[in-house]
Design brief:
Layout lengths: L1 H21 L4 E2 L5 E2 L1 E6 L3 E2 L2 E2 L5 E4 L7 E2 L10 H10 L9 E7 L15 E7 L2 E7 L23 E9 H14 L3 E5 L9 H8 L9 E7 L5 E7 L7 H10 L3 E4 L18 E9 L3 E4 L7 E4 L7 E4 L12 E6 L2 H8 L2 E4 L3
Parallel strand pairs: 15-16
Antiparallel strand pairs: 1-2, 3-6, 3-11, 4-5, 6-7, 8-9, 8-12, 9-10, 10-11, 13-14, 14-20, 15-18, 16-17, 16-21, 18-19, 19-20
Length: about 350
């Protein structure tokens, strides 16, 4: 009898622990379950030989192993991004003093475009335990909390990427300092009083002021909740150079193949003048024979050309001249699964 009662109590405790774990703020997968990280690659509307809806996307996390076509559409309230953001929207966390949130985009929804901010887009949501950082390339996204999850019609035309990472609270103290360099346009945010001592720079950004910098760029190691290593590279407008060529490739000691949205007349050619080179990707081939040109892809990412380097970076900046004078960043991973997923979709690039 005593043994049976003890087993029952253990099961109750285990059940309660699972409930607590499932309510922690984190990136959420396609089924709404917590994950360490995920990556979304939204397909462009115009692919080679095909016109599609512009809301289909491929999904990747450590459990699925390779790109998977999602059964959801990015403009519905289902799927990984919606599940992740609905922690802010549906739970009305934005009205609470127990968590920090920030929505930033140099081209925010509804509001007019204002020059001077970094070319960067993303979402932070965390409490004093943990939370997520969602970095993406989608203009006019996400919507204000009061509106709930809305995907902009303007985000259908081009390809887009999003990287979500789950971190413990201590990592957000580092992320906040990184954001100072890129000077994001926070169009909706809250840093409640219990967080002000730990996050003074984030509070300043939230108020619209620009904290002082001690350098023109900064690299910071970050570790996800499961221990995966990421490196955040951020530059201010005072570092007037291509982030890929002039900094990241040289620091990582890797030749990089770069996918970024380049506008005609402002694009930067492949660069082989420094010890490590950067080469522009011109065509992408995702699984299922999804083939499209880089000028239909608004995403920004790069991979090392050599397979042994295993470098993948996802971020903010395009390889074009005006963005030499813009703040922005990249989050780099050394995870072999992420590298394989991105390296195998490079269909054609302009070499040296």
């Amino acid at each position: 009898m005593a043994t049976r009662i003890r087993l029952c109590l253990q099961n109750v405790i285990l059940f309660l622990c699972c409930i607590v774990c499932s309510t922690d703020i984190s990136c959420r997968n396609e089924a709404g379950e917590p994950v360490d990280w995920f990556i979304m690659y939204k397909l462009p509307k115009y692919k080679i030989g095909e016109v599609s809806s512009g809301v289909e996307y491929m999904y990747l996390d450590s459990s699925v192993g390779s790109w998977q076509m999602s059964k959801f559409m990015v403009n519905t309230s289902q799927g990984a991004i919606a599940n992740t953001l609905n922690q802010l929207y549906k739970g009305k966390v934005y009205t609470s003093n127990s968590s920090v949130y920030a929505l930033y985009n140099d081209a925010p929804p509804v509001l007019d475009y204002i020059q001077g901010y970094g070319h960067t887009k993303g979402v932070l949501l965390f409490d004093q335990s943990q939370g997520f950082w969602l970095s993406h390339s989608i203009p006019h996204f996400p919507s204000f909390p009061e509106r709930g999850y809305v995907y902009p019609s303007s985000g259908k035309v081009n390809g887009q990427t999003a990287l979500c990472m789950t971190y413990k609270y201590e990592q957000f103290l580092r992320i906040a300092k990184q954001l100072v360099y890129i000077y994001p346009r926070f169009y909706n945010c809250s840093v409640p009083a219990p967080f002000l001592v730990d996050l003074p720079q984030l509070a300043q950004l939230c108020e619209g002021s620009k904290p002082q910098l001690t350098a023109d760029r900064k690299a910071e190691e970050l570790f996800s909740i499961q221990g995966d290593k990421f490196v955040s590279f951020v530059k201010s407008e005072h570092f007037v150079d291509d982030i890929y060529t002039g900094w990241v490739a040289q620091v990582l000691q890797a030749d990089l193949l770069v996918e970024s949205w380049q506008t005609q007349g402002h694009d930067l050619p492949s660069n082989c003048s420094l010890p490590k080179h950067t080469m522009n990707i011109k065509r992408i081939r995702l699984p299922g024979s999804v083939l499209f040109q880089s000028h239909h892809d608004h995403s920004k990412w790069c991979v090392s050309r050599a397979y042994e380097d295993q470098v993948t970076c996802i971020g903010d900046l395009n390889r074009e001249r005006p963005q030499l004078w813009r703040g922005g960043g990249l989050v780099c991973s050394f995870h072999p699964l992420i590298y394989k997923a991105f390296r195998q979709v490079v269909d054609w690039y302009i070499g040296c």
